[in-house]
Design goal:
homodimer; Rossmann fold; two-stranded antiparallel sheet; 55% helix
């Protein structure tokens, strides 16, 4: 059952086996010991970490050693602005915000509108505008204004270009082909693009004229880029970027069918701009249930939280471990019905989205404080 | 004898057969009829045209038709700033200046420092500085300040990037490979670069928001780029750029051995910054002679101007047709000795370089009037 899945920067499909991903990508597991070291610095742990939703890493231990030695890291993450932001996109940003809050550090946030133009049937002007639309969602997450630097590749290319050239010069087509699967029919823009995506791994060091450790919270499907960045880092005299990888928020209809949420399929996702009614309707209608066919059977046999999408989503959005445990037990015992667990999720999401949407509205007034432009 | 030569954007070697080039590149010959049409607009013809030093073109007739219809063209040419400027580089700029003077038109001059960084063992900062050093030579040629726009790719990439992405999206690796001979070991920067070099073919149209015909005076070794630009032009809704191609100024030791002048081999070229003494010494010592071994034999048998480098150079630098004819005849008859024709060239070049060097010095004060930056 757990054999057929695909995870690449452009595609996530099937029921993802995260242990297998760690083996295949050659990353490290986030261990309790590592979390203990992190907790020594932060005092507590985000529920994404407590629950191993962030399950894999590269060099997180090294970041902690650097912290022990008094050297601060910067954060880097990004977004391909191909359309509206949904909750699956927000997950790594929530993780990133926690790191920023705990370590009061700079965040570099890259909007890869160039990439989206190169691979989608969309006009350049549209993806570029989407960078700014999506930036409102980034800001709404609550990042620190003076330490958060959001930029569209298209509008910040002059600053990035020199480093992109340096990375590109050290990367042969053969290497890029092996990492990204380019073919003869790939366009020459997307072949160059990985050099642009690696730039923020090194840009802080260049701008501050000292070697700065970088931590990238991201989904594991982006690992290819950081692998390339790590290969090139040494040749350019920079630190290799460290990463921490999260699980995908399942699509509403479950991971088996559709992999991660996809903004191109309305029924798989909740957008940050959805109304409370839309959220309720989508969850009620589409969310894959681990419950039984009838209330009677459910009371008797209980539900299966491990495949129940509302429960899975609550592991991302219900911060209280005890509450979550109770939901798990009650659902499994049959005390909690499918309609009830769905309504719990609806309330949780609508509460989250109410705050998000208010902050997103306010973000329109302050967006220029966050955006970098050449 | 005329079979072994190579002409690519990166290499020109051997004794170039220009008629064969026209066939191989699929360009058109510059005919007397075409020159007549041009002369109707300009009143006279530059000696590079009268002597068919500019021998090949694409769509020059179309440019003239556009002129007949009252539509003005812009000029585009450029330079790969890998080192000092020599007289071989100046030749296309002299041709370009003539077109600018005659048609009072805009010139876009691209310094491809990004390309030079990607293919040479030079630091990025050095090639970027060379762009500005070389720009002094461009300005010294005498282009119009308000209508001449010189830019380093690195410093003007923000303006160029959007168009480069549009070109890149329409160009597969397969196409680029066929045109430029890329291999698996080509770096991913140089694979993208052709998209950047084609940008100025379309940039004036974008900036002026109307379709503007472009004429590119350049050596034929750059044709690959314009072929690619012409393929993409229609897909993007722009005119195809027209071109006029010049012969190479032979290296001092002749085309047979070394092809065009190369700044990396001192003995093949005269730099724009050479002193009169250096010029005299190089010509006397290195310039390949079509003369006889002794004065006595030369007086008796005469010299061969067709292989004599000083004579070949005079076809580029002696504007007066009657003087040139007399030099040809006298050299052939033996009336003019090797030492004498060499001194004629030395005087001609030193006169040219004296003016050039004075203008180059003055250019330092006005360079910012010419340079575009993002």
């Amino acid at each position: 059952m757990k054999e057929d899945f695909i995870v690449t920067p452009w595609e996530v499909k099937g029921d993802v086996d995260y242990n297998k991903l760690i083996r295949e990508f050659g990353t490290e597991e986030v261990t309790d010991k590592l979390l203990e070291r992190l907790k020594n610095h932060t005092g507590d742990l985000h529920h994404f970490l407590r629950r191993k939703i962030y399950f894999s890493h590269r060099d997180l231990g090294w970041i902690l050693t650097k912290l022990d030695q008094g050297e601060k890291f910067h954060l880097y993450t990004g977004r391909g602005p191909s359309g509206k932001v949904h909750l699956g996109h927000i997950v790594p940003w929530l993780m990133t915000k926690w790191f920023q809050d705990k370590f009061d550090t700079h965040l570099w946030f890259q909007m890869t509108d160039d990439e989206k133009f190169l691979i989608k049937e969309k006009p350049l002007e549209e993806v570029n505008e989407t960078s700014y639309e999506n930036a409102l969602d980034v800001i709404a997450v609550g990042f620190k204004p003076k330490k958060t630097h959001i930029f569209s590749d298209i509008d910040y290319i002059k600053t990035q270009y020199k480093l992109a050239l340096k990375v590109a010069k050290k990367t042969t087509f053969s290497t890029a082909k092996a990492i990204f699967g380019f073919t003869d029919s790939s366009n020459i823009g997307i072949i160059f693009f990985p050099a642009v995506q690696t730039v923020p791994c090194f840009l802080p060091s260049e701008l501050y004229e000292k070697n700065i450790p970088i931590l990238i919270p991201a989904s594991i499907d982006q690992d290819n880029y950081w692998r390339m960045a790590r290969d090139v880092a040494e040749k350019l005299g920079y630190y290799k970027p460290a990463q921490i990888h999260g699980r995908f928020l399942p699509g509403l209809q479950g991971m088996q069918d559709e992999g991660k949420m996809s903004s191109s399929v309305e029924s798989t996702c909740i957008f940050t701009t959805d109304t409370p009614e839309e959220v309720e309707k989508k969850i009620m209608k589409y969310a894959f249930s681990g419950g039984q066919a009838t209330v009677e059977e459910h009371r008797k046999l209980g539900g299966n939280p491990d495949i129940d999408v509302p429960y899975q989503w609550l592991t991302f959005f219900e911060e209280d471990d005890r509450k979550l445990k109770k939901i798990y037990d009650d659902y499994k015992s049959g005390a909690l019905l499918t309609g009830e667990i769905k309504m719990m999720l609806v309330e949780k999401l609508n509460h989250f989205l109410k705050g998000h949407q208010e902050r997103r509205e306010k973000a329109k007034d302050v967006i220029e404080d966050f955006m970098l432009r050449d």
